[in-house]
Structure formats: structure tokens, C-alpha cells
Amino acid sequence: MKQPSNRLSALLRASLLSVLLASAGLVALPAALAQETSAAKGRPALMLANVYRPGVVLKDYWVSEKYDGVRGFWDGEKLLTRGGERVMAPAWFTAGWPKTPMDGELWAGRGQFSKAVSTVRQQTPSATTDADWRGMRFMVFDLPAQPGSFTERIPPLNALVAQIKQPWVVAVAQYRVADHAALQAQLKKTVKLGGEGLMLHRGDSLYKGLRNDDLLKVKTHEDAEARVIAHIPGKGKNAGRLGALLVEMPAEAGKPALRFKLGTGLSDAQRNNPPPIGTLVTYRYRGLNDSGIPRFASFMRVREDGLN
User: Fold this and answer.
1) Residue 82 · residue 42 · CB < 8 Å
2) N or C terminus of the chain: which is more exposed, having fewer CB within 10 Å?
3) CB 92 within 8 A of CB 204
4) pLDDT band per the 50, 70, 90 thresholds, residue 278
5) Residue 99 annotated to the active site
6) How far apart are CA 265 and CA 205, in angstroms?
7) What percent of the chain has pLDDT over 70?
8) Nearest to 201 by CA among 120, 246, 143
9) Is 305's pLDDT higher than 90?
10) What number of other Cβ atoms are within 10 A of residue 230's Cβ?
11) Which of 2, 66, 192, 255 is catalytic?
């Protein structure tokens, strides 16, 4: 058997080391390896968003509403969550859908995130399940397998959704804004109407299953995710129940994972029955302090693993 070259052996060792270090949370996985690892774990390689910051060249981006639901991926045969879990939607919901993969959001309406999550999590078809799905929409915002830039993918997307001819399958409207002031005005209008925020999609970007600046989220606040690693007992009025969650932020390239307490924003029900150790939670915050810890962090909700 032919032995690999020294160079090839070195590359293989480096790749293996990167995966091992990333698994331990010590480094971020390189982009190409991250995409391959995601596929290997059964998760669809979806494009993920960074956070918008002033200074971004807005003429390069399309703008759309950010729908607060459950990320849905139609692989041409079945509907999956971001985590690769099968969504057991009623047969009528996906009847006649094309073989073309579609990336979108399973959405129950503005301010109805909890309803969207509970509907998507239902595994046993019933009359109740069917009624819940009647209120759902699949908001399609991209075609992962379609060649060309995002700008070039928009017309085929609109045409495909039109061909499906189902009112619950909707092509997300894309538009342009002139500058930061116009973007903020649109954000304010969307939030006032009950929307979560906006999305920016770079017009010349190809579809890549990575997190980068080709896709940006615009909100009135910053939010992120962290994993629960301990429950801190409460004091005073919270004696005998949860006082705060000790959470850990994911490690970034060249930076270690950071831990902090998350006590604000928890309901009485959550203090009495805390999110289990290992749960991924979403929190909002206002910038970072010098050590990298979020300032004024407040618990928002449990992120149903693999859903949103």
C-alpha cells in the first residue's frame, strides 16, 4: 500500500488536531472543516448570520424581515430543523414541494415564537396538530443548491414558490435601503409592528453553510447563546430555588470559553424548574466589558436544541 507523502500526512494530522481542539472548545473549527463536520453529524450546512454593525456598506446588501420562528430546511424530500431533526409536519403541508432544497423559517406570526416551537416539536399527528399547522407559514429566503449570487437566486426562488401555489409557502420579500438611517427607520417600524428585526444578505454572496458577514441580523438589542453548566442557589426571595444560571459562551478562535452568571430575566416557573445542565439558552446584552463578558445580560429563553 502506498504511503501518504509527508506533506499529506502533516495536513491530515493538522485537520485531526483542529477537530479535536474544536471539540474540546479550545479553538474554532476552520470554515471548510466546520461545514464537513456539520454534515457528518447529520445537520444541514446552513448559512448563519453575524451581527450587523454600523459601517457595513449597505448598498451591497438586500434587506428583509427577520422572522422569529424555527429554522426549517427542505432537503428535497423531507423537512429538517437546523439541528438535522425531522419535522413531522402533516403530509398536506409539504405535499407537492419540489426536489429543490429550500432554506426558510417555520413561522407562526409576529410574537408567536413559542407557538412555532411547540408546533414544530409535535411528533404525533392529531386533530390538534393539524389545526396548529394551519397557522404556520414556511417563509422561504434562499435556495441553497441554486448556483449564482444571492441576487441571482432571488428570481428562481420567487418563481419556485409561485409554482408551489400554497398560501403557507411564502417567498420572503427582499428590498434595498439607502443608508444606516434608513435601515434604523425600517427596523423601528418593523419592531413597532411586532417583528423581531431585520436581516441583511450580501447580494454577491454564494450560498455557504457557514457563519460569516454574507448574512447579518439587525436588532434593537444584541443577543447570543450560551450553555448552562451549573445552577446557582438563590438567596432572599429566591431562597430554595434557582438564583442564577452559570453559563459558558462558546470558545472563539484564539480565545478561551468564558463563563458568567445569568440571573436577570428568569420567570418564577424557570427558577422553580431551571433549564437542565447542558441546555443552550439565548440571552440579550448591551456590548461586552474589557474581559469579553456580556454587559447587562438578561435571560430570554431556552433555545430548543437544533430548532432555531
Assistant:
1) no
2) N
3) no
4) very high
5) no
6) 37
7) 83
8) 143
9) no
10) 12
11) 66
